Amino acid sequence: MNRPTRRTASARHRSSRVLGSSRVLGSALAAGLLLATAACSSDDSGGTGASASPSGKESPGASPSARTLSQSEAQAALITNSDLGSQWTTSKGAAAWRDTLLKSKVDQQSFVTNKGNAADCQKLLDGLYAENLLGAPTGAHANTGFDDSDNDGQMRYQVASYGQSEVDANLKWLGTLPDKCDQFTAVDAKGGKQTVQVIEMSLPGVADARQGLQITMNGSLEGEPTTLTLDYAAVRVGDSALSLTNGGLQGAESNSTTQAVQAGASRLSDVLAGKSPAPTQG
Prior knowledge:
By secondary structure, the protein is α+β, with helices and mostly antiparallel strands. The N terminus is likely disordered.
């Protein structure tokens, strides 16, 4: 009867030795982990080990286009007349039709079914004249202008920092205008009536987001029948955007609009990535 008791006691003795060894090993491992943790903390405070990016800095995976545009970068991102073709030269001033036609007021009576759209169409005309359809810049901005000697047209071009959500909201609004402002009547500064039509314009698939429109105003100017055609394009790159109007009383050279969008998006992307814009191809 005593043998089982002795075997059990012996087994307990062996178990105690194993348990004691395990405790020693566990203590050694715990000490090693504490030392390793202390070493990592020392590395972080000394700046020599891996750590989170300091506040205000971009993480390695952040898009360069997400950073804020500086004033000198906005200027560098502007296209030049060499981006458009030989018929384009630096503008000598705003065209006369801008004051006469783009300052027109929407005729509320032309909105038979949805008079609420009149406010959107007035905002369109006002924004084309003031060159602020994307809203007021929140940071750096620069603009330039070009004259088309072949078609007596004019291009107005702008680069600015706005904020991504603001630009996207305005691009979405612009996309509703071909439906809201499909066709309406506007009265110009001299009382002449203009029939205005708005259609969507296809743009090259560049940058992060974009929207194009073509606006036509049929009426009279100085007693003569006239048609003003304007391309409008807006393109977002990160938190910044480019926008332009292009056209005149002899139509809009839409190939130049496409060239301006492609060259402008490329230049703005390069500048935001910290690169010098690629040489103009002409």
